[in-house]
Amino acid sequence: MKGAFAVDTDLGGGANSMIFEENDFGGSLIASNRSGSNGELFAFTENRVAGTAELSVAMVNGDTTVAISENDFHREAYIILVGAGGDDDVMFDKNTVGGPLKLAFSGAGGADMFVVDGNALFGAVDIFADMGATTTR
Fold first, then answer.
1. DSSP per residue over 44-71, as a string?
2. Short-list 49, 10, 17, 16, CA closest to 33
3. Interatomic CA distance for residues 120 and 117, integer angstroms
4. pTM beyond 0.85
5. Which end of the chain is more exposed for a tag (fewer CB within 10 A), N or C?
6. 50 in Cβ contact with 73 (< 8 Å)
């Protein structure tokens, strides 16, 4: 795909999936996804983004799986992931980022998992993780 690409999705109810796989984005990419119920999947795998990449995923009711792996981000990448409950699993692995990386995950509750593994990062790196809090009464 030549030029800038933008997509905004709201998956609504049900166990839905949004998958970007083996795409070649010749410009910048802005992708935003909001999952509407639990048991959702958002996957961004084996893609190439020549420009700036901005990914935002809101995991509304929890039990969501997010996989961002084996991508080639030629410039900077800004990835914001927000969980709202349940057990969310986030994996950022085997990616190449040619510029700065800002990766943020906010888990709101449950047994969340956040994995950053095997990446090649060539710019400034800013990783933030808030795994939520558990309150016992």
1. EES-EESS-EEEEEEESSS--EEEEES-
2. 10
3. 9
4. yes
5. C
6. no
Q: What is the distance between the alpha carbons of residues 41 and 7, in angstroms, rounded to a whole number?
A: 16
Count the alpha carbons within 13 Å of 54 in the hemisphere toward its beta carbon: 8
Other C-beta atoms lying within 10 Å of the C-beta of residue 1: 12
Please tell me whether residue 131 adopts helix, strand or coil conformation: coil
Residue 33 domain flag:
yes
Cβ atoms of 43 and 52 closer than 8 Å: no
Q: From CA 48, how far away is CA 75, in angstroms rounded?
A: 10
pLDDT averaged over the chain?
Answer: 85
pLDDT digits (tens, 9 = 90+) for 68-106: 999 999 999 999 988 767 788 899 999 999 999 999 998
Tell me the two tokens of residue 27: 């410009």
Type of residue at 4: A
Q: Considering its fold, how many domains does the chain have in total?
A: 1
Query: By residue range, what is the domain housing residue 75?
Result: 5-130
